[in-house]
């Protein structure tokens, strides 16, 4: 069924990007979707001073939480355990899948219904469950659509943002038995609701992600609009929450500001329809809710980012997606071109830790460093600086590379390095620089008409007849 | 054993980074600068925000609540309404409602689930509190208040005691010392269930109730 | 034109793009400064701010080139650049680039004296321009560095606002990047091309006769793409445009782009 999409050969990234950029329909729907999300966010922050104060607080909370991460995780684990929630730790996606499958098999589970969880995408959980004959069905409408189409989410908040209504209408008619074609959004949603209702009632295990984990109370906070997250965490007998180790905060008081930043930045909502705070499995006298709740904490390279003071800020992310909504590159190439679980600017800075730099450095180079992402990031992750850092790690000589990022030096080329040396040597010495620019100007007629990637899109650049410095002298 | 190992390795790597401690962020200071409104203003804001989010808001008093609820249930043609122990405890309310609909009591674990999924037209619940800033109803799910009643039926009717309307989520958590302990499940509800996953077009009733009816009870 | 300040001295850092590719922008910037009562000093030994290497993940090479520039400004005069991008590099990234090195203090001292041209004209000199030209409509593209690392968006608009016969047309998605990104435009032409394609379309559609920008990189990107793909968009550096409008002088013959 679905192919793992988490390794991107460099050539393939370019090819996918090119395909999207040259598809006018896709360009139009991406632009429309991004404009929509940008406008909705803007409306939510009418008062810039308040926004900046809230970002200050959000950034401080995330930095504090990271600075104290090991103790917070220990506190969280103790509190969750005391509340009756089982805590599991996994270093790798494989370990996390094994933990999940072990729980499932202990309960002879056959069907799993999933609320939205990007970490489960990191794990390729659906694929792993399939291999042991457990059915996993996505219940978030966007995720359901994407799963039905054998695809992957193209956006972390709006998984099916790359699909038009007409495409979804055709997909439903084709893939859901007994469904006739309709392009009414209301009807399509009701079809999805009906199909998934039956699955909720029958599922053995419900899966969810987590937006925030609160150490002091042992609480898992989930944010959603559809109600499928509540269904997945309430109806099946077992609830398994999956998340990254960085999602913890110490105090319950830290949740309201982060929640406000998250929902306003993500979808331009003051709050989502549901904020679901889970602190224990069903208690003996309670009438519903899961009998068992598990939390799987996944590392998957996060400790690598954590070890480096600068790269650590990557983990401040609260997964709102505002960076991709405002990214000129994402707007042109969409989420699938990246080929990673997390697309867009956040994907460029987190994927090297998840997958290694060797397969992801090209993503870090695919940015104009315009800074639109950092400008809207609710927790002020300095994304452009991190991109420059990752480029530096990629191009460094592997013989002398630091151990900060797995795959450092994988983009190193002695030819490119020699060119940079030559460039720097020229520009470091005014005499050489003047000689070089004098020649470039004097022999401008020798300027090649083909200038690599530049002349794909532009008329060739030609040096001026006389340099600025010469003309300045003339004038005097 | 292998899980212990993963835990130790992860914590070991985190500790090895040897982060400098940072001062505790002061969320209270941020919220102290925000607008604090008196109760009537908070209630107006709550009602406005809920209405803007496509919730149906009815304003009533304690004395008139049974009649107001009966009217809503009749007008909406909701023949079967599921209720939990918290509502069943209000005998006179139930008596009046039974004149206009069949009440399905949800009192035993899970046995009612198939009925809830297939036969019920609405779920009626009480609420713990409300939040003006975001137009939010707070459900405190415990033994008295099952979680599915507000989720599975196509209509969710919720009764809000407006005296318990707070400025913000922060104010509510802070004034009630939520940090000292939470029930199994707290749910903040701010609109009917919805999605915009198909071409950014908003549709209601995605997985939860298509209609959210909020009975604001205010005794002046 | 008038400026409310006494004569003062500034250093002019022309940038490598202006030196070799758009000299008229530099000349017009110098003239503007001089007409505003400023003595302009051009350190001959200047080359490049080092940004191409810095953003390409070559900090060693960037430092080597940037270090050469640190010694060019011995007097405590302001350093003015006709580029938001290079000004942003020197103001914001030099302190990071030299952090923990022997040159840290020198880098910070230089960074603190850096001005983008329009910022200097408005915020320091308080320049008042009198428009001498015929009515015209222009589009302004503010580079991302100028927008986010300097105050140039505000000051450029203020300067254009002083020109009575000039109407500023706001193109669709005005604040979005033009897709240049230095080496990005060469390395990822498929993506860069998609971004600049939309930028060119928006500028063509907004009804402007001329594109004004304070950054030659963006100008070469936008006008170079327009020239390749159909009707040209006349592009002018802000300095050339201001000079032409206020004094009827400009070195820009429109032939270099």
Number of strands of chain B: 12
Portion of residues within helices of chain C: 40-55%
Q: What is the CATH topology assignment of chain B?
A: Rossmann fold
CATH architecture of the largest domain in chain C: 3-Layer(aba) Sandwich
- The residue fraction in helices of chain B comes out at 25-40%
Radius of gyration of chain B: 21 Å
CATH superfamily annotation of chain B:
NagB/RpiA/CoA transferase-like
The counted number of beta strands of chain C is 8
Outline the low-pLDDT stretches of chain B: none
Q: Main sheet of chain B, how many strands, which sense, barrel?
A: 6 strands, parallel
Stated plainly, the CATH topology of the largest domain in chain C is called Rossmann fold
Q: Would you tell me the structural class of the helices and strands of chain B?
A: alpha/beta
Name the strands of the widest sheet of chain C in spatial order: 2-1-3-4
CATH architecture classification of chain B: 3-Layer(aba) Sandwich
Distance between the termini of chain C: 28 Å
Mind explaining what this structure looks like?
- The complex is a heterotrimer of chains A (476), B (220) and C (257).
- Chain A folds into two domains: 294 residues, Rossmann fold; 62 residues, no CATH class.
- Chain A is 51% helix and 10% strand.
- The N terminus of chain A is likely disordered.
- By secondary structure, chain B is an alpha/beta fold.
- In chain B, 32% of the residues lie in helices and 26% in strands.
- Chain B contains eight helices and twelve strands.
- In chain B, the strands form three sheets. In chain B, strands 1-12-7-4-2-3 form a six-stranded parallel β-sheet, sandwiched between helices. Chain B has a four-stranded mixed β-sheet with strand order 8-5-6-9. A two-stranded antiparallel sheet of chain B has the order 10-11.
- In chain B, β10 and β11 form a beta hairpin.
- The radius of gyration of chain B is 21 Å and the shape is globular.
- Chain C is built from 13 helices and eight strands.
- In chain C, the strands form two sheets. A four-stranded parallel β-sheet of chain C has the order 2-1-3-4, with helices on both faces. A four-stranded parallel β-sheet of chain C has the order 6-5-7-8, with helices on both faces.
- The model of chain C has no long low-confidence stretch (mean pLDDT 94).
- Classes of the chains: A alpha/beta (476), B alpha/beta (220), C alpha/beta (257).
- At the A-B interface, α2, α3, α4, β1 and α8 of A face α1, α2, α7, α8 and β9 of B.
């Amino acid at each position: 069924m679905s192919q793992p999409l988490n390794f991107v050969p460099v050539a393939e990234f370019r090819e996918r990007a090119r395909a999207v950029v040259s598809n006018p329909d896709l360009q139009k729907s991406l632009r429309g979707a991004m404009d929509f999300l940008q406008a909705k966010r803007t409306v939510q922050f009418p008062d810039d001073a308040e926004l900046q104060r809230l970002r200050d607080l959000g950034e401080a909370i995330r930095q504090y939480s990271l600075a104290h991460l090991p103790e917070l995780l220990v506190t969280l684990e103790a509190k969750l355990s005391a509340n009756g929630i089982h805590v599991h730790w996994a270093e790798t996606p494989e370990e996390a899948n094994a933990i999940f499958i072990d729980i499932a098999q202990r309960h002879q589970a056959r069907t799993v219904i999933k609320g939205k969880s990007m970490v489960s995408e990191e794990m390729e959980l659906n694929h792993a469950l399939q291999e042991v004959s457990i059915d996993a069905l996505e219940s978030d409408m966007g995720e359901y659509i994407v799963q039905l189409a054998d695809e992957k989410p193209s956006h972390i908040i709006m998984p099916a943002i790359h699909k038009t209504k007409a495409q979804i209408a055709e997909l439903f008619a084709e893939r859901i038995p007994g469904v006739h074609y309709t392009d009414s959004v209301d009807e399509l949603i009701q079809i999805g609701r009906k199909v998934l209702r039956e699955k909720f009632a029958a599922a053995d295990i419900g899966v969810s992600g987590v937006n925030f984990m609160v150490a002091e109370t042992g609480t898992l906070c989930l944010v959603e609009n559809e109600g499928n997250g509540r269904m997945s965490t309430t109806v099946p007998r077992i609830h398994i929450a999956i998340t990254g180790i960085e999602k913890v905060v110490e105090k319950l008081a830290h949740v309201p500001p982060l929640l406000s930043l998250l929902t306003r930045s993500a979808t331009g909502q003051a709050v989502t329809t549901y904020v679901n705070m889970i602190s224990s499995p069903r208690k003996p006298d309670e009438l519903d809710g899961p009998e068992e709740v598990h939390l799987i904490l996944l590392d998957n390279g996060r400790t690598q980012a954590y070890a480096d003071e600068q790269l650590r800020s990557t983990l401040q992310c609260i997964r709102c997606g505002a960076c991709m909504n405002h990214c000129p590159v994402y707007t042109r190439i969409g989420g699938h071109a990246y080929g990673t679980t997390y697309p867009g600017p956040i994907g460029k800075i987190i994927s090297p830790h998840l997958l290694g730099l060797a397969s992801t450095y090209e993503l870090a180079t695919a940015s104009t460093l315009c800074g639109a992402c950092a400008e809207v990031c609710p927790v002020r992750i300095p994304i452009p600086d991190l991109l420059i850092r990752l480029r530096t790690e990629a191009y460094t000589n592997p013989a002398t590379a630091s151990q900060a990022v797995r795959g450092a030096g994988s983009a190193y080329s002695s030819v490119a390095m020699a060119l940079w040396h030559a460039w720097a040597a020229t520009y470091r010495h005014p005499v050489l620089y003047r000689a070089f620019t004098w020649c470039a100007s004097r022999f401008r007629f020798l300027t090649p008409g083909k200038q690599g990637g530049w002349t794909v899109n532009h008329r060739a650049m030609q040096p001026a007849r006389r340099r600025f410095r010469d003309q300045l002298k003339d004038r005097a | 054993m292998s899980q212990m190992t993963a835990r130790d390795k992860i914590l070991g790597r985190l500790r090895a980074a040897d982060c400098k401690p940072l001062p505790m962020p002061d969320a209270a200071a941020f919220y102290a600068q925000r607008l604090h409104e008196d109760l009537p203003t908070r209630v107006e804001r709550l009602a406005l925000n809920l209405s803007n989010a496509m919730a149906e808001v009815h304003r009533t008093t304690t004395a008139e609540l049974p009649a107001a609820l009966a009217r809503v249930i009749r007008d909406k043609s909701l023949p079967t309404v599921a209720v939990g122990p918290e509502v069943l405890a209000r005998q006179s309310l139930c008596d009046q409602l039974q004149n206009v609909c069949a009440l399905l009591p949800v009192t035993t674990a899970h046995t009612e689930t198939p009925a809830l999924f297939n036969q019920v037209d609405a779920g009626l619940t009480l609420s713990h509190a409300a939040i003006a800033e975001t137009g939010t109803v707070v459900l405190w799910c415990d033994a008295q208040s099952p979680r599915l009643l507000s989720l599975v039926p196509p209509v969710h009717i919720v009764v809000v005691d407006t005296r318990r309307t707070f400025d913000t989520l922060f104010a509510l958590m802070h004034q009630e010392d939520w940090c000292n302990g939470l029930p199994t499940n707290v749910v903040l509800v701010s609109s009917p269930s919805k999605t915009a996953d198909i071409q950014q077009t908003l549709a209601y009733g995605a997985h939860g109730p298509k209609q959210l009816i909020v009975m604001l009870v205010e005794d002046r | 034109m008038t400026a409310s300040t006494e004569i003062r001295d500034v250093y002019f850092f022309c940038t490598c793009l202006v030196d070799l590719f758009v000299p008229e922008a530099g000349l017009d910037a110098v003239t503007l400064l001089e007409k505003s009562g400023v003595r302009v000093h051009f350190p001959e030994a200047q080359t490049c701010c080092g940004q191409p290497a810095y953003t390409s993940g070559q900090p060693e090479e960037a430092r080597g080139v940037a270090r050469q520039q640190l010694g060019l400004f011995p007097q405590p005069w302001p350093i003015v650049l006709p580029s938001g991008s290079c000004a942003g590099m020197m103001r914001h990234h030099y302190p990071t680039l030299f952090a923990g090195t022997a040159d840290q203090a020198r880098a910070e001292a230089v960074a603190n004296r850096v001005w983008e041209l329009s910022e200097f004209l408005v915020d320091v000199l308080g320049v008042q321009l009198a428009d001498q030209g015929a009515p015209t409509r222009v589009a302004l593209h503010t580079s991302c560095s100028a927008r986010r690392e300097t105050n140039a968006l505000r000051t450029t608009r203020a300067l254009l606002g002083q020109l009575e016969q000039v109407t500023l047309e706001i193109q669709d998605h005005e604040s979005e990047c033009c897709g240049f990104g230095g080496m990005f435009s060469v390395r990822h032409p498929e993506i860069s091309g998609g971004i600049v394609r939309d930028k060119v379309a928006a500028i063509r559609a907004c009804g402007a006769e001329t594109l004004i920008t304070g950054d030659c990189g963006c100008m070469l990107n936008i006008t170079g793409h327009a020239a390749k793909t159909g009707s040209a968009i006349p592009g002018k550096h802000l300095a050339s445009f201001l000079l032409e409008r206020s004094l009827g002088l400009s070195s820009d013959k429109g032939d270099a782009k």
